[in-house]
Amino acid sequence: xxxxxxxxxxxxxxxxxxxxxxxxxxxxxxxxxxxxxxxxxxxxxxxxxxxxxxxxxxxxxxxxxxxxxxxxxxxxxxxxxxxxxxxxxxxxxxxxx
Length: 97
What we know:
By secondary structure, the chain is α/β, with parallel strands linked by helices.
């Protein structure tokens, strides 16, 4: 599964990214997750199975959804804040069924 995580600048999501990667290893699944800023989505979305947006870009959610040709969902703020990797992976899986 390949997840594109979109945040304001691509930097604040590094902790979430690391936790999701580690969780993938723990459950024995290959989970590829990368973070980019909103401006980069149109250049890279086609390399991923789904997009998850961080809470700080909720005002750009519709723009991202219109730009990308893959499923897009907003991460719940509480899952993003604590890096709840299990819930984040579950959300991604629900998008790419």
